[in-house]
Fold this protein.
Amino acid sequence: MTIARRLALLEHLYAVYDRFCLSLGDLACRKSCADCCSRNVTMTTLEGLHLLRGLDKEAQDKCLAALAGTDDQPIFRPRWTTNQIAARCRDGLDPPEDDAIHDGSRCPLLADDVCTLYPLRPFGCRCMVSRQACGVKGYADVDDWVLTVNTVFLQTIEHIDRPGCFGNMQDVLQALGREDRRTAYREGRPPSDAPGLIPNRPAPALMVPPEHQARIRPIWEEMQRGMTG
């Protein structure tokens, strides 16, 4: 599948998810609410390319400089992709433990608690849809149904970005910020040598509990219309 096709699919999935969020009613998430905007967001290389190509050269340089300015701070670097975890669950194994970092560090791409890249934000940011401000409890208040939908989107985005990579947003954007790596990725050679990145995996099975299977069917069909059309 060409990069252009994958980017079109990603935009379709973003649009489907945005419509899903409208169905959730009144959420606490709104402009200037940045309680959950940390440096621990994860993303695929496809999302990184989508973000960077939506910026002009000056904005790209500003974004990458802001990330480089926090290189000395700890960040969450995943050791497992969503589909790797799904494969373990399918096989009856416990989900693997990962190295969690919750140091309260703020995303360097904020300006006065407003995301400077909001229209281009990755799914890891889009799916933080809380019923109350995260600062109230110290975490997002998301019900099980929304978590199921989020997992299906995360699995699908990873699935279509093969042979791409997965990692912390900072690592992905800094890797693709190099023109040689960005060109190689467009040609089918992912930046797997970049620090902190791990290969994406195919979706082994959709992680949907029985009580949500009928409910998610129309959302899945809408996702599939874009992927087969």
